[in-house]
Write a structure and sequence with these properties.
InterPro entries: GH3 (IPR004993), GH3_C (IPR055378), GH3_M (IPR055377)
Pfam families: GH3, GH3_C, GH3_M
CATH superfamily of the largest domain: ANL, N-terminal domain
Largest sheet: 11 strands, mixed
Radius of gyration: 23 Å
Strand order of the largest sheet: 6-3-7-8-9-10-11-15-14-13-12
CATH architecture of the largest domain: 3-Layer(aba) Sandwich
Number of helices: 17
Low-confidence stretches: 3-12
CATH class of the largest domain: Alpha Beta
Number of domains: 2
Protein name: GH3 auxin-responsive promoter family protein
Organism: Autumnicola psychrophila
Keywords: Coiled coil
Number of strands: 18
């Protein structure tokens, strides 16, 4: 009998019973008020008169009127860069002990996002909420005695003067409480290995020594890890190594495009739990097993705002136009795409995190990530968002019974005419023309703007199939393998030309 597991499970069940959800509007008002009060004497708080905002009759409205939108480039150039010059009390009291490096999905240059002690604590609290939510997933008592594989970036943070730098998953893992160390895998020593291939090799070598019950990580990299373990031990699937593996906590991107290829590595399906941990904070958790939607964490150091995701409000680089309207949590509607803005205990203010979300349940404040503002393809009025692309790819998988875990797309000009050029990562041998026709028809049926574009400026669709392994190799060549790195779903023509040259070179070598 799993005595310790039963005790832990009972404690989780008890906490879930005792801790009730806060009133959403009161919670968000309270978070904004606390943020403004704590930051009112910072350079940013004085510049935008946080003191005056706090004295207003409607602090939410006053905050939105006085403080502009910020994307990373704007807030970094105007404010965060001052921290690297030694300034204190810039956008948050004191100086942050960490900076999260995030190359995101574009370019080789890492963003450097401040992570304060308050944010480390907020992430820890969100993690506890996620563990508490496991009480809803009908897991046996012995599950709570199993190891947890956290496949993030290296925990070997780099010292940079008075602070340390690393990816947010590495920062979070380096702050794991002592009581959790016994469950945490791959453990401190392996987690410190900086090179992804070396770290995964060590994980594969040690995999049989661990009794893993849950894995957390980005789907693409988790899939590659499992493939490496299966290959190293010459077994059929990951359950031959970890028979008690029951839960996969996905994060960062939608899991659905990876579902078929992911499940092919298993003996039986896992309980998939979505999480929303970004470099800027832990934003949402999945609380219910009958839905992949995630509940916004409304009382934990983050204030949320929403901008309707419409072409007229978005600049070509994915930033928000100054005149774009903003709405509060109380005004959102279900099944509408919004650009997410956050203000946080790390000193991000009305910050464009880059993700678009939709509410699947307004009453429960549950969301799905629908894409990235930079991955909105609208060159000829097609208005394709990532969720529409993902849906179309899933339809192809079902129609042809194939697996397409990765893809990328660009609008390219051929003889003066625009085409959508898709690269699909698949090992199938379906004719590319058949895939192109099916993809085109699927998008016409699902998106009226795309259908109109196809009758006018968008002349056709081209599909090229390539081995799925080329996608992580591209990431490795341009940024870094593993961690928080995600593949670009939409590329500009110049970047796409580099991608095509890379693919051609890899296929010829």
């Amino acid at each position: 009998m799993a005595i310790i597991g039963s005790i832990i499970k009972n404690l989780i069940d008890l906490r879930d019973t005792l801790v009730s959800d806060p009133d959403a509007q009161k919670a968000q008002h309270g978070e904004l008020e606390k943020l403004l009060k704590k930051a009112k004497d910072t350079s940013f708080g004085k510049h935008y008169d946080f003191q005056g905002i706090l004295k207003s009759d409607n602090i939410e409205k006053s905050f939105a009127e006085k403080v502009p939108y910020f994307d990373y480039n704007k807030i970094n150039n105007e404010w965060w860069s001052k921290m690297h010059e030694g300034e204190e009390d810039v956008t948050w009291p004191g100086k942050p002990p960490y900076f999260a490096l995030s190359s995101g999905t574009t370019g080789k240059t890492s963003k450097r996002i401040p992570v304060t002690e308050d944010m480390v604590e907020a992430i820890r609290k969100a993690g506890i909420k996620q563990v508490s939510a496991l009480s809803h997933f009908d897991l046996p008592s012995d599950f709570f005695e199993k190891d947890i594989m956290m496949l993030g970036s290296s925990t070997d943070l780099h010292d940079e003067g008075d602070h340390q730098e690393g990816e947010i998953s590495g920062i979070s893992a380096s702050n794991i409480p002592s009581w959790f160390q016994g469950y945490y895998k791959p453990g401190k020593e392996i987690a410190k290995i900086d090179e992804w291939d070396d770290r995964v090799q060590k994980i594969a070598e040690n995999a049989k020594n661990w009794d893993v019950g849950a894995i957390s990580g980005i789907p693409s990299w988790t899939e590659l890890m499992m493939k490496k373990i299966i290959e190293y031990h010459k077994v059929d699937n990951i359950h031959d190594i970890w028979p008690n593996l029951q839960v996969y906590a996905s994060g960062g991107v939608a899991f659905e495009p990876y579902e078929k290829s992911f499940n092919a590595l298993l003996d039986h399906p896992l309980k998939v739990i979505d999480t929303y941990l970004a470099s800027e904070g832990f934003l949402a958790i999945q609380e219910r097993p009958d839905s992949h939607s995630m509940k916004l964490i409304l009382d934990n150091g983050i204030y949320f705002e929403f901008v309707p995701f419409k072409p007229e409000f978005i600049n070509e680089d994915g930033s928000i136009k100054d005149e774009a309207p903003v709405i509060s949590l109380s005004e959102v509607e279900e099944e509408q795409d919004y650009v997410l803005l956050i203000s946080t205990v790390s000193g991000a203010w009305r910050y464009l995190i880059g993700d678009t979300v939709k509410f699947t349940d307004v009453e429960k404040h549950e969301i799905r990530i629908t894409g990235r503002t930079k991955f909105f393809l609208n060159v000829v009025g097609s208005q394709l968002s990532v969720n529409k692309m993902n849906d179309a790819i899933q339809a192809l998988e079902d129609k042809f019974d194939i697996k397409i875990p990765e893809y990328t797309i660009a609008a390219v000009r051929i003889d003066g005419e625009f085409y959508h050029s898709w690269y699909l990562g698949t090992d199938s041998n379906i004719e590319e023309e058949k895939l192109a026709q099916a993809l085109d028809e699927e998008l016409k049926g699902a998106n009226k703007n795309y259908k109109v574009a196809r009758s006018k400026s968008l002349k056709g669709v081209k599909v090229t199939t390539i081995p799925p392994g080329l996608f992580p190799e591209w990431s490795g060549a341009n940024k870094k393998k593993g961690g928080q790195v995600k593949m670009e779903k939409v590329m500009k023509e110049e970047k796409f030309a580099e991608w095509e040259a890379f693919v051609k070179k890899q296929l010829e070598s």
